[in-house]
Design a protein that fits this description.
By secondary structure, this protein is an alpha/beta fold. It has a single domain, classed as HUPs (Rossmann fold). The protein is about 35% helix and about 15% strand.
């Protein structure tokens, strides 16, 4: 696998600078095909395309780990799949998005970190690992038919803010594909009946438990009341209509008392949204993947010359880290 992405030199930097200068709130760096987020091929005949289910893996990707890969390839929670019969209940998300924010509520760039350009290149490698882990590479080296992945950068630190930006961006992109002005364009979608409505994006944010803690922490909002108001709008079907799929911690994992208290408080804060089926705890379904596998563990192990760091990332990411001498003390 090539260590460099397919985009031209300077492409990612140009888009990064555009977002950082506030000229654009969000930019797509890469899409697996021009029709994204619409499927490359027609949808399943038993499901009308009135809703597009898009998984959002939002992270610092410094670097991407095996936990990122497992989360990115996790199955949709049952209740995020409207209109599906039992025979189609195991369908994947319609589209997937790897999202990098250039403004993080907790983390600022530090000496020794991968640059944003390097993270985007590793995200590209992760997108290829996502496909390789669920499908054998075709003989002609083309992408599998179900490939529907994109990479984007956004200038927004909170999930609530990202949801607003994403919905506005996706509505504009999808509307452009239906617009008569693009009817002769290959990426235009031909309506099959008059008065066709634009499919509504249904965003499912994929989180680790530590990120769920931050989403439900009042310190990131003006007050606890302001947090609940923001989250109710975030999850409301008449608001941003978002879902959260959170990786469940391993039951056998040894935890200290403080961590147990944090988790109990988080689940208590989330109970309203769990009961309304807006927050789901999911299993990553991989015995060799620990939800707590973190990018910081990789960076620390690389700096200490502990070769076990290679077990925490995919081979393509490991090769990239070595070739670019990342995280070396």
């Amino acid at each position: 696998m090539n260590a460099k992405p397919l985009w031209p030199p300077g492409h990612a930097l140009k888009l990064l600078q555009k977002v950082q200068r506030h000229e654009s709130p969000l930019e797509l760096v890469y899409t697996s095909h021009e029709r994204w987020p619409f499927p490359r091929l027609p949808t399943h005949p038993q499901r009308k395309l009135d809703t597009i289910r898009i998984s959002i893996l939002d992270s610092s990707f410094n670097p991407p780990t095996c936990a990122h890969l497992a989360l990115a390839n996790s199955r949709p929670p049952r209740y995020t799949k409207p209109g599906l019969t039992s025979s189609t209940a195991e369908l994947d998300y319609d589209a997937k998005l790897l999202l990098l924010s250039v403004r993080n509520a907790d983390k600022a760039l530090k000496p020794g970190d991968a640059t944003y350009e390097q993270r985007l290149e590793m995200m590209y490698l992760l997108s290829k690992d996502m496909l390789a882990s669920v499908s054998q590479r075709l003989e002609d080296n083309s992408e599998p038919e179900h490939a529907n992945v994109a990479i984007a950068i956004v200038d927004e630190p909170t999930f609530v803010g990202k949801a607003v930006v994403l919905r506005q961006f996706l509505h504009a992109r999808c509307s452009g594909m239906y617009h008569p002005a693009t009817a002769l364009d290959e990426m235009a979608i031909s309506p099959t009946y008059d008065g066709i409505s634009i499919p509504d994006p249904r965003l499912v944010f994929l989180l680790g438990f530590d990120t769920l803690v931050r989403l439900l922490s009042p310190r990131y909002y003006a007050s606890e009341a302001a947090m609940m108001d923001a989250l109710r709008l975030f999850f409301s079907p008449t608001g941003d209509n978002c879902y959260v799929a959170c990786a469940r911690r391993k039951l056998a994992e040894v935890q200290d008392t403080v961590q147990e208290e944090v988790e109990a408080k988080t689940l208590f804060m989330a109970r309203e949204f769990v009961e309304s089926e807006r927050v789901a705890l999911i299993s990553l379904g991989a015995d060799n993947v620990d939800e707590q596998t973190s990018s910081s563990q990789v960076r620390t192990k690389v700096a200490l010359k502990d070769e076990t760091w290679k077990e925490l990332v995919t081979p393509s990411i490991a090769n990239y880290i070595i070739q670019n001498s990342l995280y070396v003390s």
